[in-house]
């Protein structure tokens, strides 16, 4: 039985929804937007925007599956050709989900914008962002440390939250002249192409200042993720008049996940050595689910709760199992326990997405992958 995520009061808002975004990026204005226009002009009229989004997502998903096949334990170098492929797949998903790309498609075919299209775009973006984070860790051979864990948390998960956070509280998604989307994604593509050319071991060599190249890249990722959070967050904090209680409450979701990451990093004996990627995936599915629901609340203008059952259950289960080892001296085997949570998290996410797509298609009288 699929859950109902759209209330009666949200139905009219879904039908009347118009995306409100602004991009001031230099690269977008002079390069990416004209390039997207040239691609659109060559696409067949029957090709639905949502289908393009899913094709782009599948490119990235194939890259992840191939990477896990060659490097499941994150202790081997990826083949050079695979690094090239991942860079190319990121380019595909970036173009598929670029807002201008979809606006042109929708204007030419339906003369409207779609709430389902926005939800699908941003939902796949959220999913892809933490997948790219995992792929980057594998490609440049970063060791699993607490620094790696929290750099991943900030850059691959929380930074995306702040984009939705800004849109929710200000009514607009705004990207600055230089931002993590329009400039950041091409940079990540370049990193994978460099890795394909020089090989993953190139990143483990020392730079001219005495630090390994992958360590310097990790510091840059930390900075870029933190800067993105501030770029989006400051506007909201100003609207709240810097009231700490309001700010902390509005950030319950990322703070809760940060707490879970803290217990995994500092209290689990095997997380960083063996199961970091497993925990990232468990939390990744639930994180993407919560972001989808957050974005849905923007569309429907219905209240968003940061305390979904499956989200709380996952956090509670992980922390409880880790603490059990320290309190009573034993706990459930982390591998089998983690696999069970992963299955639960993935199914919960899948049911949520299925329900959202079904409800929005019914409300809008459209089909997911075709144009009437």
3D structure, described in words:
With 372 residues, the chain is an all-alpha fold. The chain has 14 helices and two strands. It has a two-stranded parallel ribbon. Helix 3 (49-70) packs antiparallel against helix 4 and helix 4 (80-97) packs antiparallel against helix 8. It is globular. The protein starts with 10 loop residues before the first helix and ends in an 8-residue tail after the last helix. The model has no long low-confidence stretch (mean pLDDT 88).
Summarize the structure.
This protein has 372 residues and is mostly helical. It contains 14 helices and 2 strands.
Which structural class is indicated by helix and strand composition?
A: mainly alpha
* Strand content range: under 5%
Strand order of the largest sheet: 1-2
Number of strands: 2
Key phrases:
372 residues; 14 helices; two-stranded parallel sheet; 72% helix; mainly alpha
What layout of secondary structure does this protein have?
Layout: H1 11-16, E1 21-23, H2 26-40, H3 49-70, H4 80-97, H5 99-109, H6 115-139, H7 146-170, E2 173-175, H8 184-198, H9 213-239, H10 244-250, H11 252-267, H12 271-300, H13 309-327, H14 334-364
Parallel strand pairs: 1-2
Helix pairs in contact: 2-5, 3-4, 3-6, 4-6, 4-8, 6-7, 6-12, 7-9, 7-11, 7-12, 11-13, 12-13, 12-14, 13-14
